[in-house]
Amino acid sequence: MDAIEMLSGDHREVEGLFERYGATESVPERQAIVGVLSRDLTKHAALEEEMLYPLMTRLAPYVDLDMERRLSLHADIKRTLVVLSGLSGIDQATDRLIGTLREQVGAHAQTDEESLLPRLRNLMDQQARDELGEVLLAAREIAPEQVRIRTPIDRPNLALTIPIATFCDRLVVGRGVG
């Protein structure tokens, strides 16, 4: 699977979850949607932070990819998810937080799809994007499901960083960089 299609697909799936949340009155369904949103957003953020962003920085070291802004958007989303996870039940506070989360995720998706993913398309040929997609799909299976705010002393998740470092080495040394 093409890495760009996979990451863009994540954005569309999450938007669909927000739409489902707003369209249902069922409290159990809303609770389930909140759980899926939290899990999927946590996994997506881990893949980007631990794998995609370091890869992009290595492939385009002199290009301003505004990683600080990207990480700041992730941090905002994570803080909202932490607050959301601390709520009991579904009520107006939950609805407000879901609205905030939807705005935050929308800003993240727009930033990625307008700048980061087009740059990735320009840096990698189709075969490399397909290989990266496979690496990301495998990593998604072991990525964390519970949101956690990282601290400066946290170490990278080696289960995620080693596969991307290996992929990046093959890519940079071999072929595939456009």
Q: Report the C-alpha radius of gyration, rounded.
A: 17 Å
Strand and helix order:
HHHHHH
Helix amount: over 70%
Count of distinct structural domains:
1
Sheet-strand content, in percent, reads: under 5%
Mean pLDDT: 85
Query: Uncertain spans, ≥5 residues at pLDDT below 50?
Result: none
Q: So what's the overall shape? A: elongated
Major sheet summary line? none
For the termini, the CA-CA separation is 19 Å
Structural classification: mainly alpha
**Tally of helical runs:** 6
Query: Total strand count, please?
Result: 0
Instruction: Describe the oligomeric state of these chains in a short phrase.
Output: single chain
Describe this structure in words.
It is a single chain. The protein has 178 residues and is mainly alpha-helical. The protein has one domain. The chain contains six helices and no strands. Helix 2 (27-59) runs antiparallel to helix 3, helix 2 (27-59) crosses helix 6 and helix 3 runs antiparallel to helix 4. The model has no long low-confidence stretch (mean pLDDT 85).
Secondary-structure blueprint of this entry?
Layout: H1 3-23, H2 27-59, H3 67-85, H4 92-123, H5 126-142, H6 158-173
